Amino acid sequence: MRSVLLVGMTLSMCLVMPLTAVAGEEPQNLQSRLDRLQNLVDKQQQTITDLESKLTVANSEDLDAARVEEIKKVVREVLADADFRESLYPDVMQVGYDHGFYIKSSDDKFLLNISGMMQFRWTGTNRQTDNPRLQGRNKQDDINGFEIEKLFLTFAGHIHTDKLTYQVTVQGDTDLSHDWVTYYALVNYEVVPEFQVMAGLMDLPQGRQFMNWDSKLQFVDRSMVEEAFFLGQSIGVMFHGTLAKRVTYMAGIYNGINDPTDSPGREQLDTNFAFASRLIGHILGEGISDETDLEYSKDPLLDVAASFYINDDNGDNLGPGLLYSIPDRIRRGRGIGGNAIADATGTQYYGFGADAAFRYRGFSLTAEWYLRTVDGESEFSQWEILTGKSHSSHVQGGYIQAGYFVIPKKVEVAARMGGVWDNDDDNVWEYTFGVNYYPYSSHNFKIQADFTRISEASVDSSWINVNQNDEINMFRVQLQAAFE
Length: 484
Hints:
By secondary structure, the chain is α+β, with helices and mostly antiparallel strands. It has seven helices and 21 strands. The strands form two sheets. The protein has a 16-stranded antiparallel β-barrel with strand order 3-5-6-7-8-9-10-11-12-15-16-17-18-19-20-21. A hairpin with a 7-residue loop joins strand 19 and strand 20. Helix 1 (2-21) runs antiparallel to helix 2 (27-79). It is elongated, with a radius of gyration of 37 Å. The chain starts with a helix and ends with a strand.
C-alpha cells in the first residue's frame, strides 16, 4: 500500500509539472508529452501489479510450507504406529527394526528377530604368581593385546502365537577353541504371565550379575567372584513367572551343572538331576535388568533376591570345578600354597545366594553374596583325595559395586570391591574402578575402561584373562557395538 501511494504521488507531480511547464506549447508537442506520460503511468501500474502478485505468492508459499510441515509431522506420527503400517498392507510380510531387525508374517503368527553384539577389547596385565606347582614367588609374563572378547548372534521370535516364543544364540570369540558354539537354544510357552514353561539350553537361575546380559554390564566384565561361583548353562526345564508385578520366581530341573559351551550328551551324565531356583522381590518398581541406571530413573527402583541350587554328582562330565585351598599338610615346609580346583564327581554340592539392587536418578548400587557347600560322598573322589575333607566344607564370596552418571545418560563412573573368603586361609580380594561413555545414551554403542587389582586370583579366568593364583594389576578398554 505504501508503494502504491508513493507511485501515485509521483505520477501526480509528473502530471502537474509538465502541464505547468508546457502551457504555451503547441498542441502536438503537448499531446506527445501526454502520450509519454501515459506510457510511464502504464509501466508503473504494471510494476505495482507485479509486486502485489509476488507478495501474494510469497504469503501463499509461507502458508503452504507451514501446512506441509504440519502434514509431514502428522504422517510421521501415524506411520510410527506399527499396527497402522501393517494395516496399510495386510497381506504383505512386515520388515523393520525393533530391538533388532525383524521379519513378521502379515497375520502376526510368525516372527523372526535378529540381534547381535560384539565386544572389542584391549587388555594390559601385570602379574605375579603363588602357583602351588612353583617354588616361592615367580614373575609371570605380562599380557598386552587386543581380542574379540564376546561375539553373540541371536535369532528369536514367536511361532503361531506371541505366547510361544523361541531363542537361539550362538557365540564366537577369540577365547574359544571352536568357531561358533550354541549358547542358548530354548522355547518358552506362556500359559499366563504368572506361569510360563521354558525348555532347552538356558542359564541356570542363580546370581544377579550372572543373569544380567553381557551387553548391560557396568564394568568391562563380570567380577572374579562371579566366576568363582559360576554355574553356566545347562539343558533342562524351568517354570517361571511374575506375580502381581511384585514377585518373580524361577525354578528348574537340569541334566546337571555343565560347561556353557560343551553341554554333554546323555551318555556323559549320571542319573541325578540338578535343581536351581531364584526368587526376586520387586520392592520398588517392576524389576531391574540393567547394572547401571542409564535410563536415569525418575522414581527409585529396588529389587531383593535369593537363590538356591543343588547337585548330587556321581558321574557328570564337564561339571564345574570346586574351589578349595591347598591343605596345610601339603604346604608345610615347601613354601607353597594358594587355591586349587577339584573335580565335582563323587560330591554333593549346593549353594545359596542373596542380592539387592537399587537405582535412582543415575545412581546404581548392587550387592551380592554367595555360599557353596561341598559334601564328599566317596572316599575315592578327587575332592577327598586332594582336600583331605570327608566332612561338609564351604566357601563364601561376594561383591558390592556402585556407579553414578556424572553426565546423565552419557558418562558414568563406577567402583567395585569383592572377595572370596572362608576358604581356609586363602582369602582373595578384588578392587575395580571404571568409567563408561555412552555417545548415544544406549548400550548399543559404548566405550568402557577400568582398572582391576586382584590379590590372588581364585580361579583360571578367560573373562578377566588371568591364571589361578595370579596377583594382578590389569587395565582394560572395551568398545561395544550391538543391535538389540
